[in-house]
Amino acid sequence: MLNLEELEQLVAFKELGTLSKVAEKLLISTPSLSRSMQHLEEDFGVPLFDRSANRISLNKTGERAVEVARRILSTSQQGIKEVRQFEQSLKTITIASVAPAPLWSLLPQLASLYPNKQISHQICSIHKVMEAIEEETIDLAVLPFAYDQNQTTCLPYLQEELAIAVTTGHDLARLDAVSFEAINGYNFLLMDQIGFWNELVQEKMPASKFLIQSNRFEFEELAYNSTLPRFTTNLSQEREKIQDDRVMIPISDPEAHVHYHLVSLNPEINLTDLINV
């Protein structure tokens, strides 16, 4: 049976050209390496080398054996990776969410319900979350709509409503509500990594310019020291301080009112436990 360590030595011989260089690199003796090459010839059942008094080199069959060895080693490494990833998946709950707000309550709930599991999460576009569901690479998804396919379970979770925060002297401050059409053309401060909200506002407000920040501290500093409008939601207002001289105005468009749904692909995750916590 082929030995992976000996196959690695064969590939190294192809790359380095001499047994002494291979022995030096792999920290083994030259006689031991020579015996490994003989073992490989026995395992393949054919000569792999041309030998002379002071030299050994690969013959044409040996060259082909190197190609085979590389494929075997690559496959074995991939197999090891897959097995390790599977073992890790048994210990991990993987979540993909279209927005950060649902994770603020969901992650502590999961940690409490599954204390022996690691929790891995990512915030991504609706398309990416749907792709992860279809490919079954996650245990739990958060979508802004119901989903009931591919042997999944789905339950409503939280509601989030988008609003804007403007200074009391802003043109929009006197309004009780605004539409995307009404605020299209105004420039806004926008936090990056807020999932589908980011895509939505830029789609609905093509005439607006956005000062996008990826660092939360820098975003809050800019929000505090500038008069630029910003976006907020009913859920984010519980976590972030909005200045006293700012007025919150809800956005009236239906797209600004989202009912998140939890989608479970893992039969061990009982969504009812999460909804009722």
Automatic annotation (TrEMBL):
Cellular component, GO, one term: protein-DNA complex
Gene3D superfamilies (UniProt xref): Periplasmic binding protein-like II, Winged helix-like DNA-binding domain superfamily/Winged helix DNA-binding domain
One example GO MF annotation: DNA binding
Entries under SUPFAM superfamilies matching the protein: Periplasmic binding protein-like II (SSF53850), Winged helix' DNA-binding domain (SSF46785)
Domain of life: Bacteria
Keywords of this entry: DNA-binding, Transcription, Transcription regulation
Domain HTH lysR-type: 2-59
CDD domains: PBP2_LTTR_substrate
Similarity comment: family membership: Belongs to the LysR transcriptional regulatory family.
Protein name (Swiss-Prot/TrEMBL): MerR family transcriptional regulator
Organism: Streptococcus oralis subsp. tigurinus
